[in-house]
């Protein structure tokens, strides 16, 4: 694989606006939510389903790595350990799974903070505020970590597209709860990267069995508000 231009490679696999979420996308949702909640026994069949839906080993690993930024290393690592068990079981059953492509080398010489700031601007379709306000002004180091690590180190990895990473993100945020501002922001990003309102409605129906009626109702409330705001 070759290194792609900053911010472009992740747009090559935008969601199909004419279709509901694919089996692969639905697996990303379920795997992400179950891992975030630590429901490892239920995660096992979901991982199997993801592999059967055509996800490569590296794609699922990348999902499990990406979500640590939103629900922590312990959940991410337990998800990876569970996936290792699933792969061992599948190998013992004679199933040969596709490894898939790894991440392309990142050779950008631009400042990492500015690279992350650029990617965030592409996702939000706004110019990130400068100087910072709110939590970024209160604790400037968190803004540095967000820009340099999350939006540069992680989002530049092309194992998953930006659209797929956002699907992981809204799944985790919906699963952990009590993060309405972040869910609101990332649902808007989902619209920006190509998901349709009907696909996001489908997202809520897919994640509901995993996170429960109460959490799904909250996700639906936030989504409905954002879609209403977009129509105005």
From TrEMBL:
It comes from the Bacteria. Residues 18-79, 146-223 form the Carboxymuconolactone decarboxylase-like domain. Transmembrane segments: none annotated. One of its GO terms (molecular function) is peroxiredoxin activity. InterPro entries: 4CMD/NDH-1_regulator, AhpD-like, CMD-like. SUPFAM superfamilies: AhpD-like (SSF69118). It holds the Pfam family CMD. This is Carboxymuconolactone decarboxylase family protein. It comes from Breznakibacter xylanolyticus.
């Amino acid at each position: 694989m070759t290194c792609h231009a900053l911010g472009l490679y992740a747009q090559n696999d935008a969601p199909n606006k004419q279709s509901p979420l694919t089996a692969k996308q639905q697996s990303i949702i379920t795997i992400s939510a179950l891992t975030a909640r630590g429901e490892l026994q239920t995660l096992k069949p979901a991982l199997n389903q993801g592999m059967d839906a055509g996800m490569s080993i590296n794609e699922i690993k990348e999902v499990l790595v990406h979500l640590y930024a939103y629900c922590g290393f312990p959940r991410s690592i337990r998800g990876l350990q569970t996936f290792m068990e699933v792969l061992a079981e599948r190998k013992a059953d004679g199933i040969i799974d596709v490894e898939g492509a790894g991440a392309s080398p990142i050779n950008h010489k631009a400042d990492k903070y500015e690279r992350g700031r650029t990617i965030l601007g592409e996702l939000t379709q706004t110019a990130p505020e400068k100087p910072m306000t709110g939590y970024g002004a209160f604790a400037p180091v968190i803004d540095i970590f967000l820009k340099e690590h999350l939006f540069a180190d992680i989002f530049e990895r092309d194992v998953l597209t930006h659209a797929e990473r956002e699907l992981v993100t809204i799944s985790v945020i919906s699963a952990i709860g009590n993060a309405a501002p972040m869910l609101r922001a990332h649902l808007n990003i989902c619209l920006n990267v190509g998901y349709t309102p009907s696909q996001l409605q489908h997202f809520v129906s897919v994640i509901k069995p995993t996170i429960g009626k109460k959490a799904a109702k909250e996700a639906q409330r936030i989504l409905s508000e954002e879609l209403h705001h977009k129509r105005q």
